[in-house]
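For the sake of clarity, the format in which proteins appear in this thesis is described at this point. The record quoted next illustrates the convention:

___
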Amino acid sequence: MTLCGLYTGQRLSDLASLRWNNIDLVNNQLRFVTAKTGRTMILPIAPPLRKHLEALPSSDDPSAPLHPRAFAILARSAGPSTLSYQFGEILIQAGLRSKNERRNAEDNQTLTRRHREHALSFRCLRHTCVSLLYAAGLPESVAMEFSGHASTKAHGSYVYTGMTALRDAANALPEI
């Protein structure tokens, strides 16, 4: 799921809902309808993601879930918040997030919006994907289409420029 999040920039619940019939290896595409907006997405599969997908144990049943454990959690109506919590636990085990940060992130009453948005979570993979598309020099319209953002306002909050790009910008300024 992590690789799917990074290489598609899609939401956790949409990736957890994927079935093998959403994967078209002949045309190298991922096809699905987003739960939040109902938008039909057809995305080319990035080479590293394709390699990963080809290595996954598959099923003869095309309607079998791509990520069975995550799919089962959604099927039990536990929802994406349970999946998000479990991903947070993985981040804690990996030493990428502290237990206190998880507790604070869950207590939306005491945190500012900015702090909640910067807590490490599955959503960060969506932000990273969009930022990587920009870093590769792709136009905003392409990054928006790839991520499924309908407005530039929503899309803009997903872009992280990075120090390298800022240094390049500083170095591009002429001497006066």
